[in-house]
Amino acid sequence: MKRDQLTATILKETNLKNRFLDYVQVDTQSVEGSETFPSSLKEKVLGAKLVDELKSLGITDAEMDENGYVYAKLASNCGNKKRVAFIAHMDVALDCAGEGVKPVLHENYDGSAIKLNAGIVIDPEDSTELKQCIGDTIITSDGTTLLGADDKAGVAAIMSMAEYLLKHPEIKRPEIRICFTPDEEIGCGVDRINLEKVDADFAYTLDGGFPYEVNYENFNAFSAKVTFKGISIHPGYAKDKMVNAIRYAGKFVDLLPKTMSPERTCGREPFIHPVGIEGNLEEAKVSMILRSFVPEDITREENIILNIIELLKSEEPRLQVTPVFKESYLNMYEVMKDHMEVYTYVEKAIEELGAKPDVEPIRGGTDGARLSFMGLPCPNIFAGGVNFHSQKEWVALENIALASAVTVKIVENVVK
Ligand SMILES: [Zn+2]
Q: What residue spans define the domains of the chain?
């Protein structure tokens, strides 16, 4: 794949490779339903290590707070007072084994299928991005765990940016802020972030996939829970008396539009996705998530649900149905559209590296969405990895360096 000279220079002049290999071997899997913050106290082990490393690079203003967030400041060297933050998350996903990661290097990759332990094969026919990485150093796990490039590639890229800028004081930089967060994978990545400590005008998360992905749009996300209340009675004497909530919950799910499901949609298409069903004949509940890029589609989805409810109630007037809709997160574009200069810095950075940004709306959420609504506009940039949350996760070392090069170019452009 095409990469600018800066990428090779960062790879040569910074400790990128060793630091990435080091980070992935620290177990930082977050834990769903934990009582503590961060959800796994092991995340703080990496946090403490990162603070030490920032200090050894010469960044004296670096600390980890009691919640496991790492904050660091690198002062401007040219009087430019703009404050730009780079953010990555330290935890790794829990959908896949994530403890005891043993990274494997496949140097000078030849384009063939990569065979790992436990019969895991990363085939360039499925993972087509591999074809663009011939000659690169591909990093995988040994096949028994995920790798954790999501998002330790982002952490390593930001750390190497800091190292590179400190080695090159001739590069004019604004006020730079660094923040490493815990618990992104369980949706709590910014729950306890201290924006005063982040201390920035705008920010970038480095949590995207393959080059040159950039995102400034994500789903509007709502949840819906519909409760069906029936009438319970001894089945032997139930004729014309029983109303079985299970039957109506089942019927409700069956009437949801099948073309509007995650398995049948892509791009900008919205969906309604049933994620849970529970109950007995007296009471049954169906949980769903609603997703769309425009608010009008959420209203449309809510109306679809309400219409099905009306239909079922007209069929069985004794049935009681209660829907509850709740907002989860919103499309960051609502904020970004008034701050597009934040995106323009990335676009220019990538163009200066001889490429074009691959702008994609995220069919999911991002910490940057919540940060944007908290007043910190925050698009997302690739960190290099592919096949997140799986034993087939991989990253080309050169692409982590490329992400780092993009951040260096952003820094330059903010000053210009
Ligand atoms: Zn991530």
A: 5-217+331-415, 220-329
